[in-house]
Amino acid sequence: MAFYDYRCGLDGVFEIARPLGTAPGSIACPECGGEASRVFSTPMLATTAPKELVAAIDHAEKTRDAPDIVTSLPPRPAHQRTPVLPLTPTLRRLPRP
Fold this sequence. Notes:
With 97 residues, this protein is an alpha+beta fold. Helices cover 21% and strands 23% of the residues.
């Protein structure tokens, strides 16, 4: 038996168990009875990929429908940037911000 994911527009993602290779392209949602289309996902990445990659993919999946909310600006860098001097005398005459 294999597990197949389906997405309903109203109720979200759910999975069903069917024999390997017998999953239809769409089925009726068990909650509302509406049409749910099959979702293809990455198989077994948690056991073969680096942890950082798995965490990034999980975060992207999680924030697809509910993105992260930013409540403040990022902290300023610990060091100040060194001003870049003009390379030619002509550029020295330009106004500075």
